[in-house]
């Protein structure tokens, strides 16, 4: 298991570090709390979350109907 920092996750997702912490706080993204203030992210769980998110987003997009 490789643990990532919020900064590393932010780079992967191309969002701010604050957004990563917000996603962790609302439990939208898988995270591991170490002590009271440190948060880390399992690399494998993160990539699985990204894959699920992409599938769900793609499945919910409207399809174009042929005329």
List keywords for this structure.
single chain, 67 residues, alpha+beta, Arc Repressor Mutant, subunit A, three-stranded antiparallel β-sheet, 3 helices, 3 strands, 52% helix
Contiguous low-pLDDT stretches (5 residues minimum) are: none
Q: Name the structural class.
A: alpha+beta
CATH topology: Arc Repressor Mutant, subunit A
**What is the number of helical segments per DSSP (H or I, 4+ residues)?**
3
CATH architecture descriptor: Orthogonal Bundle
The major beta sheet can be summarized as: 3 strands, antiparallel
Write the layout of secondary structure elements.
Layout lengths: L2 E2 L1 H8 L3 H9 L6 E3 L3 E5 H18 L7
Antiparallel strand pairs: 1-3, 2-3
What do you see in this structure?
- This protein has three helices and three strands, in the order βααββα.
- The chain has one domain: Orthogonal Bundle (Arc Repressor Mutant, subunit A).
- Strands 1-3-2 form a three-stranded antiparallel sheet.
- 9% of the residues are buried.
- The chain has helices at residues 6-13, 17-25, 43-60, and strands spanning 3-4, 32-34, 38-42.
- The protein is 52% helix and 15% strand.
- Helix 1 (6-13) crosses helix 2.
- With 67 residues, the protein is an alpha+beta fold.
């Amino acid at each position: 298991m490789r643990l990532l920092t919020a900064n590393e996750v932010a780079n992967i997702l191309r969002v701010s570090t604050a957004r990563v912490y917000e996603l962790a706080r609302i439990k939208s993204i898988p995270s591991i709390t170490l002590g009271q203030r440190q948060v880390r992210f399992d690399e494998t769980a993160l990539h699985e979350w990204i894959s699920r998110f992409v599938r769900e987003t793609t499945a919910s997009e409207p399809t174009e109907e042929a005329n």
